[in-house]
């Protein structure tokens, strides 16, 4: 793209910058969401809740399945 193209696209620069920042935020959020260590901590906490009687077996199983699905899927690849 030449100089003229860059000049024409200059007004859109804040939008392009905002889009880039949003992509970075989403990528970091996904990295943290699918992080195996974070999922393991949540599984441990879930087990503690079950042992303390704060949740029942059904709730434990449902939430455990969700956490294990996160481990299997991992972050989406773009």
From TrEMBL:
InterPro entries: GvpG. This is Gas vesicle protein GvpG. It comes from Streptomyces lavendulocolor.
